[in-house]
Design brief:
globular, 60s Ribosomal Protein L30, Chain: A, alpha+beta, six-stranded mixed sheet
């Protein structure tokens, strides 16, 4: 099965060997997305709402570059550094998924860079190519 690497215009260089997204057989897999600027610096320090919005905007750009919309998202994997941020993350998350909600899970973890409070990886089904 052929795959297509998805890199939205203006994306920074990833921290590790991965692509922002991969599309195969009508499914888009979005890598774990952190609240980074184009130089991999954490943005919106100490603000879980702003970091969540930043992450979801990056995810949205990957999905749209692949030809889909946020309505095509079927699964989100959410990682938070502190359960105290769970409510703030959910508040912003609900703005991006106002209708039928995708499946998801959320776990508390340590993230790759200090200051990052949330990371989200996504799967979207946008149909057959």
């Amino acid at each position: 099965m052929p795959k297509e690497i998805i890199v939205p215009a203006g994306s920074g260089k990833p921290l590790a060997p991965y692509s922002p997204g991969t599309k195969a057989d009508g499914v888009v897999y979005v890598s774990g997305t952190l609240p980074f600027d184009k130089n991999n610096n954490v943005v919106h320090l100490d603000d879980p709402k702003a970091q969540t919005r930043h992450v979801l905007e990056i995810i949205k750009s990957v999905i749209e570059t692949a030809g889909g919309t946020m309505d095509d998202v079927t699964m989100n994997h959410i990682f938070v550094t502190d359960w105290a941020h769970y409510g703030a993350v959910n508040e912003v998350y609900a703005e991006y998924f106002p209708g039928d909600k995708p499946a998801r899970y959320c776990v508390q973890v340590g993230l790759v860079k200090p200051g990052a409070l949330v990371e989200i990886a996504t799967v979207a089904h946008i149909g057959k190519p």
